[in-house]
Amino acid sequence: MYFIQPTRNIPNLEQVLDALPSLHMIHIEDIHLYDPTIIAIADVQDFLHHQWSLPTIVIANENEGTALSQAWEMGALAGWIWNRLPAHPEHSLQIIDAQYKRNQDSRDLPSAAELQKKLLPNPLELQNYQIETLFQPSAYLSGDWYDYWKISDKEVMFYLADVSGHGVTSSLLTSWMAAFHGRSKTPRELIKKLNGMLVQENIEKHITMIAGILNVETHSLRWSSAGHYPPAIIFEPDQVPRVLNTSSFPLGLTEDLEVEEFECTLTRHARFIICSDGALEPFDGGLNEQFAQLVYHLQNQSFQAPEHVADDIAILSFRRMN
């Protein structure tokens, strides 16, 4: 940390410096040369006069309460008195520095959210199909994720995943999945690969997922589920919705994950939809009642995510256009 040389006479200056031996002394005219993220300690009058951008702890005389208040309003991290430093000033500095870094992390969250959204897949032009998506984090960062990419001229691979919990760790795992799904050629291969990496790293999180491959020429759809709820749904004109229930474990719980592959064919104007469990949140009742309402609104294309949600929501849909 820095100590900015006071421009006025401070009778207690030597005692303060002795109490804080780890500080690096700098001069006001050189402030622009130093790291703007490192905390500085300075005389309150210098801080008020020069108004630099370094995060600063100000020190004042006992009769300068008004100056301390002004410094606080201008963003000073803390205020001390020259002849009455904290009992353990080095320890107090560590606490202030840790809190400052936590606050900086919080301020970075909006930028991190924008970066996360940029990792979402770009729209794809597909023969005979339209991809529709919804992505709504409950906070800045989301633990829900979807991705899709072409593996041949006529096949597109996709998945939708839901990481347990919320916050930065869960969102980092979504970025990890986006970076390492690799060259998998089948839904089963993708799920097994991600599960193996998750178990190997011993991260105390689990992930539910539905992954699949759609052939846009034959309309064949192969898919697998890893403990994901709600299940995938197929909507066809004038037909009862087809709920594609399965029984399986999430990723990250066991090395011996059994993964089945299923296959179906999408008829004309059919929609294949997968959702994260946050899509159930807008509806009342138990799990079965919530799912029934979700199916109703998806079928009637009337689903609307609330403006503020307690759980992340992600929806991925493939609509056959002919």
Summarize the model shown.
With 322 residues, the protein is of the alpha/beta class. It is built from seven helices and 15 strands.
Structure, described:
- The protein is of the alpha/beta class and 322 residues long.
- The protein folds into two domains: 2-109, Rossmann fold, CATH 3.40.50.2300; 119-320, Phosphatase 2c, domain 1, CATH 3.60.40.10.
- It is 29% helix and 26% strand.
- The protein contains seven helices and 15 strands.
- The protein has helices at 13-19, 44-50, 65-73, 89-118, 168-180, 187-201, 287-299; strands at 2-4, 24-26, 40-43, 56-60, 78-81, 129-136, 144-150, 155-163, 207-215, 220-226, 232-235, 242-244, 262-265, 271-275, 313-320.
- A five-stranded parallel sheet has the order 2-1-3-4-5. A five-stranded antiparallel sheet has the order 6-15-14-11-12, with no helix packed on it.
- Strand 3, helix 2 (44-50) and strand 4 form a beta-alpha-beta unit.
- Helix 2 (44-50) crosses helix 3 (65-73).
- It is elongated.
- The termini are far apart.
- The mean pLDDT is 88.
Please supply descriptive tags for the structure shown above:
322 residues; alpha/beta; Rossmann fold; Phosphatase 2c, domain 1; 2 domains; five-stranded parallel β-sheet; five-stranded antiparallel β-sheet; 7 helices; 15 strands; elongated
Largest sheet: 5 strands, parallel
Instruction: Report helical residue fraction.
Output: 25-40%
Return the average pLDDT rounded to an integer.
88
Percent in strands: 25-35%
Order of helices and strands: EHEEHEHEHEEEHHEEEEEEHE
- How many individual β-strands? 15
- The CATH class of the largest domain turns out to be Alpha Beta
User: Radius of gyration from the CA trace?
Assistant: 28 Å
Terminus-to-terminus distance = 66 Å
Structural class computed from helices and strand pairing:
alpha/beta
Number of helices: 7
Task: Provide the CATH architecture of the largest domain.
Answer: 4-Layer Sandwich
Low-confidence segments, ≥5 residues, pLDDT <50? none
| CATH-derived topology of the largest domain | Phosphatase 2c, domain 1
Order of strands across the main sheet: 2-1-3-4-5
What shape does the CA trace take? elongated
CATH homologous superfamily of the largest domain - what is it? PPM-type phosphatase domain
How many independent structural domains? Answer: 2
